[in-house]
Amino acid sequence: MRKLAIVLALASTALASPALARDKSWYVGIEGGGMIVEDIDYDVTGTRTGVATVDHDYGYDVDGVMGYDFGGFRLETEVGYRRATVDGYSSTTLTNTGIGAGTVPAGSYSYAGGSTSALSFMLNGLLDFGADDGIQGFVGGGVGVARVKANYALNNRADFLNDSDTVFAWQALAGIRAPLTDHIDATLKYRFFNAENVKLVDVANNTHDGRFRSHSLLGGVAYNFGEPAAPPPPPPPPP
Predict the structure, then answer these.
(1) What positions does the domain Msp4/OMP-like occupy (predicted)?
(2) Which CATH architecture has domain 26-224?
């Protein structure tokens, strides 16, 4: 009877949920997914004045993060890159189509090409909700800088705009994460990204003043470097 009690005690300990290596530990992760860029409305000033609008196809968004889990709150650094191709271009003023290529009148051009991208360096703060041994939700945001680059063309000979600008950026984040092992988590995240006051100069020295805004749905994995807590000792056998 005494041997049976010891065996049952050891079995109950082995079946207990393991403590996960999240709280009080460093972690790294990678994420990627699809992105939608809001139409960019540029205020055009210089030799010509007007408004130019750039429409985009679906794009992609990838990032890498490294942070520390304080237990209920995480602080992380993030490097991200997002890019979407141009689907159409419209303007209320003349557009110089490139060096030596002449100008086109105001109007909409569905055959426009090129892309818009943003390389960002962010500092994020995240609040976690839920137990470590199950699905956990989180919300938060971040601030940093972004290098927004645009290259737009109305023909296959030259870009009429190919320039970049580095500006302040911020983002809002929400998602869920679930443990796959003691050290590895799977994540699903929504990101709203915003970079204001982007100023770009075209081949005719006109300034295009706009903002870059995107919505992304990202999946990823994260590795936690902490060690799981040791399981409690089995209860003593009954007398």
Answers:
(1) 62-193
(2) Beta Barrel (2.40)
Q: Which residues of 51-77 are buried (b: 16+ CB within 10 A; e: fewer)?
A: ebebbbeebebbbebebebeeeebebe
146-180 pLDDT per residue, tens? 999 999 998 777 889 999 999 999 999 999 999 99
CB half-sphere exposure, 118, CA atoms < 13 A: 30
Give helix then strand counts, H and E, for the chain.
1, 13
- Digit-coded pLDDT (tens) for 78-89: 999 999 999 999
What region does 101 belong to: left with phi over 0, alpha with psi -120 to 50, or beta? Answer: alpha
- Tokens 């051009």 label which residue? 109
Which tokens is 10 given?
A: 């050891």
pTM score of the predicted model = 0.84
